[in-house]
Amino acid sequence: MVKEKIKVLVVEDSIAARMFLVQLLRSDADLEVIGTAKNGREALEFVTKETPDVILMDIHMPEMDGYEATRRIMESRPVPIVICSASTKLGEALTGFRLMEAGAVACVEKPVGQEHEDFHAVTELLLQTVKLMSEVKVVRRWRRDGREKMKPLSAPIKQASRKIEVIGIGASTGGPPVLQMILSALPKEFPVPLLIVQHIAPGFVVGLAEWLNQTTGMKVHIAAHGMVAVPGHVYLAPDDFHLASRSGGILMLDRQPLESGLRPAVGHLFHSLAEVYGAGAVGVLLTGMGKDGASELKRMKDRGAITIAQDRETSVVHGMPGEAIALDAATYILPADRIAGALTLMTNQHQEF
Asked: CB–CB of 81/52 below 8 Å?
C-alpha cells in the first residue's frame, strides 16, 4: 500500500523564498506541495477550496499578514500552521508568538543560504516539524479576551507536605501557548519562583520572554548566571546554556555537554531541583517531542517532589510528558487549563476550586 504524502500549502510573499521553500519541501519524499500563496488573503481563499494537511506560513506579508491569516483560518477551517520566520529580531519574534497564541502549532527558522554552517540542521528541523505537525489534531479557535482564568480541578490536589520553594517547568513543541495559559492564570503575588526550559529555535527566547511579559502579567526574565530567583518571577533558560538552581535560589548557567541532544535541557534543570530541593520542588513537564526531562521528573518524584505531566488530549505532541507517564514519573496527569490551579493549591494559596 502506497503511503499518502503530506499535503503542504506554502504562504510566503517573497518569490525567491517561496520557490526555495517549495524546492526544499519537495526534496522530501513524504511531502507534497499542493499550493502556494503570496499573502494571507490568498491562503484563506485556498483553504476554502482545498484542505492541506499543514500550512507553512510567513509572518509579514502584504494585504493580510500571517497573524490575521492564522487567526481567521483557525476560527473557520482549522489546519495545523507552522510559522516560518527568517528573523529573530524582537518585533518579528513577538509577532511569531502572537501567531502561536492565535493557534499556530510551531515556529521554525527559515533556512538561509546553503553555505551557512547551520543550513542542514535548520532544514532538517523544518522538514521534521512540518511532518510532525501535520499529524496534530487542531480545533476551531475562538477569540479570547483578557487573562486566562483558573479552571476548576476535576480531581483532588493535595497541598504539599512541606513548603514549596521552587517550580521547574519543561516544554518543547507547542509549549509557548501552554506557558502563557499557565502564567496568565497564576495569582499576581505567586509565592515561589518559576524556572523554565523551553526548547526553541536560537534567537527566539528574548521574544518569548517579552511576549510572556506583555500577555501574562508575570515578570519574566532571561536567566543569568548568579541571579537570585525571587517569588512571583519567571526565569527562562537562555540559548545554548543549561539552567540549574543552587540552594537559596541562585541560578546557575553552564555549557556542559548536550543532554538528550539539547542545550538547554529540561533534564538538567530537573536534576538540579531533585538534588537541591527534594520535596520542596514541583516539576511540570509539558507538551513536546522526545523524552527530555522524563527520567529526571521521575528522579524528582522519587526525592519527594510533586510532579505534573500534561495529558495527551491537550498536548500538541505528547512525547515528553508521555515518556514521563510511562515511567510513573507524574504525581498528577493534568490538562493544560488545570495546571495553574493545581500549582496554586500546592503552594498553599487559599483559593476556591
From this structure: no
